[in-house]
Amino acid sequence: MPAPATIKSVLQRTMAKYEKNPDSAINTTTCLAVIGKGMYCTVQEGDAVLRMDLPKSVGGEGLAVSPGVFGRACIAGCVAMGIRIAAELQDCPVGNIQVELAMEFDDRGIFSMTKVTAAPIAPRLNIALETSVSQAQIDALVSHALAHDPWFLALQMPYEVGVTVQPLEVT
């Protein structure tokens, strides 16, 4: 792990680059999910390859973790890293950061059984920081981090997702 001064200097260099050339901050990332027969799914983004499956109770074989694990990990991990970024940029001494994300679901929603949503119900973050600063400073730091965290914001913001459907050639 790089030393905190190194992390801060990397962040400052990146911010200076974006300040000088705002267009360089705009990027599009794309991943591809592929399912053959069954529910086992391979997702690739660049060199990263993730494998997921559903539990047997919903038609999978349980050969890999469910997509929900990746979704929750994405949010909790991004929040933890966002807090680290804010702490580094604000020179706030923070040691270990723990972010627990709890979500309740009504599984009837994924089966279209009722009018309940398949989306999470009342997600909750429990955040713990190792620091000597006051609770007010911790609250301000975390509020700032959450206000700038892409995956925390994605969890909260309703927006339209563009969807295109096309036939896939049978092989």
Summed up:
The chain has 171 residues and is of the alpha+beta class. The chain contains 4 helices and 5 strands, in the order H-E-E-E-H-E-E-H-H.
Notable characteristics:
three-stranded antiparallel beta sheet; 171 residues; 4 helices; two-stranded antiparallel sheet; alpha+beta; globular
Description:
This protein has a 3-stranded antiparallel beta sheet, with no helix packed on it. A two-stranded antiparallel ribbon has the order 4-5. It is of the alpha+beta class. The mean pLDDT is 92.
User: Given the helix and strand composition, which structural class is it?
Assistant: alpha+beta
Total beta-strand segments: 5
The backbone outline, from C-alpha atoms, is: globular
Order of helices and strands: HEEEHEEHH
- Average per-residue pLDDT, rounded, comes to 92
Main beta-sheet strand count, sense and barrel state: 3 strands, antiparallel
Tally of helical runs = 4
Low-confidence stretches: none
Helix content: 25-40%
β-strand amount: 15-25%
Architecture blueprint of SSEs:
Layout: H1 4-20, E1 32-35, E2 41-45, E3 48-52, H2 67-89, E4 94-104, E5 121-131, H3 135-147, H4 150-156
Antiparallel strand pairs: 1-2, 2-3, 4-5
Helix pairs in contact: 2-3, 2-4
